[in-house]
Each structure stands twice: as C-alpha cells, then as structure tokens.
Amino acid sequence: MLNKDVAKEVLNIALSTGGDFAEIYIQEKFSHNISISHKRIDACNSSLTYGASIRIMLKNKCVFGYTSGLNKKDLIDLAKNLSKSFDGNQIVHIDEFNPVLVGKKHQPKKEHSSLTNQEKIDYLKQGEKAMYEVSDKIINATLNLIEWDEKIEIFNSNKKHIKDRRVRTRLAIQATASENNEFQTSFDGPGGSEGLELLDRINVVEVSTNLAKKALALLKAPECPSGKTTVIIGNQFGGVLFHEACGHPLEGVAISHKTSVFSDKLGQQIASSCVSAVDDGTIDHGWGSFNYDDEGEPSTKNYLIKDGILTNFMMDNFEGRRMNKPSTGSCRRQSYKYLPTTRMTNTYIDNGPYSVEEIIKATKSGLYCVSFNGGSVDPSTDKFNFTASEAYIIKDGKIDHLVKDASLVGYGYEVLKNIDMVGNDLGRGQGMCGASSGSIPTDVGQPTIRVQNITVGGRGGKF
C-alpha cells in the first residue's frame, strides 16, 4: 500500500530529532453488515476504513498521530510535526527493510464475495423463520452477518516490513420474547478469523430455535435468590468473567502503571492450584487471532497462570520498555486512529480433570450460571459485577430450575483463589472488547468451573 522509498524517507524524518524508534502503520479495512430485525431487512451496508498512523518513541516517551491521506506529502508533514516533540540529533537511520514472511494462516476458505447479498439474506431468514415458529410470544428475531476484510502494512525502524490480511466473519443472533409487559432476550454470537465457511458450520435454524426457547423460558422463571453461595460457571462465554476481572489487570498498561492488583505478583500464587490460564493469539481461525500484532510482533501462546502461579503478563513493546520485558505479541488497536497498546487475544482458563456432571453432582446447593450478558470491572480494585443470561438453581447435586436476573458481585483475585473444581469441556465464545485502543475482537473461554463463596444478587429471597 506504501512505496518502500517513501516509507524510508518518512521514517528518517520522524527520527531526525533523536527518536530511538519510529513506525508507520497503514490500514485498509472493508466492512460489510447485513441485519434483519422486526421482520424486515434492517441494514445492508458497507464501509471502508483507510489511513495511516506514525508513532515515535524515545525511551519511555511516545508521540502519535494519524492521517487519512496516504500521499507522500501528508505522511511527511505528519512525521515532521510529530518529530518536533524531540530536540536531539538523529541516532537511528533507515536504509533498508527486511520483509517478514507472514504465511497464510487464518486465511478464508470461502471468500465473502462467494455469496450474493440475497443469498446471505436468505440464510439469515432461515433463522428468523425458525424463531417466530417457536411461539407467538417471540416479538423480534434479530440476525446480523458481520464481515471484515482488513489489510495492514507496517514499516518500522527495526527494519521490519510486514503485510498481512485479516478476514473475520461473525453472526450475531438475538431472540426477544414478551408476555404481560415483561421482556426477555437470549443471544449468541459465533465468529472467527475465517470467511463464509462460518455459515456452513453454524446451523442457523438450530441456533435460532434454541435462543427463542431460552428467551421464552426466562419469561416463566422465578427471580434468583441472593446471598453468598457456591457458583458453577459454564464454559465458553462464562469466560467473560475471567476476561474482565482477571484478564484486563494482567495487561501491560495496567501492570506498568501499577494500577493492577497483580502488578507485583509475578511468580507468586494468585489462584487456586487447579487454575491455569492462557492468552493465545495463535489459535487457528480464532476470533481474536492474527499472525502479527499491530506493532509487527508475532502472536504467541502466552501462559499467564500455571497451576495457580502468575507466570507472565501480556506486553507490548512500549509498556515493555517501562517493565524491561519483551513483547508477547499483544499490541492491538481498533484502527489507525488509535494508539496501540496491550490487549487480550483469545484468553481462557485451561482444561481440568472433571466432567460437568461430576461438578454438578459434587455441589449440594448453589447456582449454575451457564452464560452471561456481560458486566463491568474496576481494574484498580478488581471489583466486578456480572449479570447471568442463563442460570439454574442447584439442589442436592442436580439442576433444579431456571432463575432470572441473577448477578455476581465480587473481586477477581478472590474468585481465582476460590475456584476448587475445573472441568474438561473447554469452549470459547466471541465478543468485542472495548478499552483505550478501541473496540477489538477477542475470544473468552474456559471449561465449566466451580467457585466457592461468591456473592449472588437477586430478588427471589435468600440462599
């Protein structure tokens, strides 16, 4: 996307006042979205994100700017303006680049262009029809097909030149049920770093039917009781609790600024010995996977916690300067307009020895949270609040009945220590994670786990 000679000139100008590192990041991202809602085609639109950013570093100082113009003058002007932040002499000079061989991992088997818009709409309508056939209490079936085809190019003063293509596809499906002025929803959002082969492996009729049934069941479910109890947290999107309450505090920006409760805990036991946790950007076609991160570092499989011991953090190059630690290939951004920083990729608790049936049978009483709507966490205190989208009361080692409006409140560091059973049914769920460098695709995940003494919020009496 950018001539190498122009890239050399721009970087040398950026470095002319004494910066010890400079990079050019170029992005061209085509996005396409088809949405069905309220029995009509709600949207069928496309957008193009196109531009470049320049970042210059000197020790622990960093300046950043961007432009939507990719001609030589725009880039040189941006480099000159940014270089004014420094007043030294040039110490790094670029005379060549070493192209990095990226390979074809995560590339689509079925391009987005292989189906027409009408064929994609017809696919979504299968799910819509299935939802409405479940019950007349289903008042809305919402189905979205999200397609991204992104090309990035990076030139930096380490002489790296990287070109990569990132293709992602996701379905976002929600059923809404209503009765007596009460509304309940159920959602699923499968996706991956892949093309339209996603549609071949997702049975949209089956997924949509199950979501409609779940939303209907919630209409009749009693309120969840409250109090401290044993909580079983389901696999796949149950991992959002670990992502929010423990993953973010292990990111380099929180660690280097000492705003994380885990900042000085490396090598210490921070979790039960049955817990191991991983951030892995290398998973084949994972929703949060990529070949190289937005600094041009290769993605890695990074063990954060091993047998309860904190073994590593997630790190980008800039925060690594503060910490004297190497990058873990974890630097990400929404677009060229965002300053990149350390972010999660596909983050999950690893498998343990127990089956789901064994965990439930071993639990005399408590709550089984199958999945969550989402939640929030204060990274400075690690306090979280999450709302379950599907939760059941456990009695005498058996699933008793569905409840609604269950919430979990507590501290991430306490949850890690109170996990006493880890299942063998690891699964991952897809989501969008928002932070200082924008909204990015991430996988959350875990097997089914059991946690002692979590505070549960609800309006259905006491446990």
**Strand residue content:** 35-45%
Query: What would you call the structural class?
Result: alpha+beta
- Low-pLDDT parts are none
Distance between the termini: 61 Å
Anisotropy-based shape:
globular
> Sheet with the most strands?
8 strands, mixed
Mean pLDDT: 96
Quaternary state, please?
Answer: single chain
Approximate helicity band: 10-25%
Radius of gyration: 24 Å
What is the number of beta strands? 23
In DSSP terms, counting alpha (H) and pi (I) runs of 4 or more, how many helices?
Answer: 10
Could you walk me through the main structural features you see in this protein, from its secondary elements to its overall organization?
This protein has 463 residues and is of the alpha+beta class. Strands 1, 2, 3, 4, 5, 6, 7 and 8 form an eight-stranded mixed sheet that branches. A six-stranded mixed sheet has the order 12-11-10-15-22-21, covered by helices on one side. It has a five-stranded mixed beta barrel with strand order 9-16-17-19-23. α1 packs parallel to α2 and α3 runs parallel beside α5.
